[in-house]
Amino acid sequence: MTFKNVTVAGSGVLGYQIAFQTAFYGFNVTVYDINDEVLEKAKAKFDILAESYKKDLKATEEQLAATKANLQYNSNLAEAVQDADLLIEAVPENPQIKIGFYEQLAKVAPAKTVFATNSSTMLPSQFAEYTGRPAQFVALHFANEIWKHNTGEVMKHPGTSDETFNSVLEFAKQIGMVALPIYKEQPGYIVNSLLVPLLSAALDLYVNEVADVETIDKTWMVATGAPVGPFGILDVVGVTTAYNINKMAADKTQNPTKIKVAAMLKENYIDKNKLGVATGEGFYKYPNPAYWEKNFLK
Ligand code: NAD
């Protein structure tokens, strides 16, 4: 299977990045969302994104003009998928919305179309039966700021065919991703299976007053050679996401450390709008965080 026409469903935070990246690499891309108003907003965001491609990838005006020419928009699902070889789903992280979307999609997509979900926290097997084509369904997970953090985690569910898996891995490479095959379903894929425990351990050390933020980061950076420590990473991910994960764990387990972590993040960071890089301050102050200073690791 080779893909040429790609439909991206959902033009939110990740969807519009996926659409732009795919168009940048020469595919015909149709962006689908619930109405034309939302699609108009996506078009405006593409102009901002183009600036990041210039800055970070040294993209030329010609490349960006070609990218825009490869993008089409349609709020009618049947029309948006009528020629699609591949549909990438980036609709909200809500199981009911996703199920409703796949039920609708299954009715209108041509038999050839392969479906890929970008869900971060749900498994493809949760949706496989609603796609009407479980063998042609797989997860393709991107990271935020896809043009820079170019992981393409391709994860099978038990019913995914090898042909689908291999074709989507190949596609991920063709759009500039480092294609990462994941043979078995794993909540959090590889990246979050590694990252969530690290960040959680760092927060636990801090709220239990074992060490302060900078010492924990320094330890990680010096000991492993990593360019940033767990609290620096938390600022990039966003304190709100960390709070949501810890609050959920606290409510579920009543673990005293998790309860302390959730309260600390809420009172000292969220309530003070210190949400990380996005608001200019989190555990560090931006644009020049302390861990970039020459003497930080001394
Ligand atoms: P978002 O809320 O920013 O965007 C969702 C988009 O889907 C919106 O434009 C919305 O109008 C649209 N939408 C709503 N209902 C729809 C429907 N029925 N059909 C089509 N479009 C619909 O969400 P997001 O952050 O872009 O996340 C989308 C998916 O990507 C989620 O599964 C999420 O787990 C995953 N993801 C997000 C990130 C991230 O950093 N935000 C990273 C990796 C993966």
Automatic annotation (TrEMBL):
Ranges where the 3-hydroxyacyl-CoA dehydrogenase C-terminal domain occurs: 188-286
Catalytic activity: a (3S)-3-hydroxyacyl-CoA + NAD(+) = a 3-oxoacyl-CoA + NADH + H(+)
Enzyme Commission number(s) of this protein: 1.1.1.35
Top EC class, one word: oxidoreductase
NCBIfam families: PRK08293.1 (NF006143)
Domain of life: Bacteria
Pfam families xrefs: 3HCDH, 3HCDH_N
Residue intervals of the 3-hydroxyacyl-CoA dehydrogenase NAD binding domain: 5-182
InterPro entries per the UniProt record, alphabetical: 3-OHacyl-CoA_DH (IPR022694), 3-OHacyl-CoA_DH_NAD-bd (IPR006176), 3HC_DH_C (IPR006108), 6-PGluconate_DH-like_C_sf (IPR008927), 6PGD_dom2 (IPR013328), Mito_3-hydroxyacyl-CoA_DH (IPR052242), NAD(P)-bd_dom_sf (IPR036291)
Record-given protein name: 3-hydroxyacyl-CoA dehydrogenase
PANTHER family, A to Z: HYDROXYACYL-COENZYME A DEHYDROGENASE, MITOCHONDRIAL, PTHR43561
Keywords associated with the record: Fatty acid metabolism, Lipid metabolism, NAD, Oxidoreductase
GO molecular function, a single term: (3S)-3-hydroxyacyl-CoA dehydrogenase (NAD+) activity
This protein's pathway: Lipid metabolism; fatty acid beta-oxidation
Organism: Empedobacter falsenii
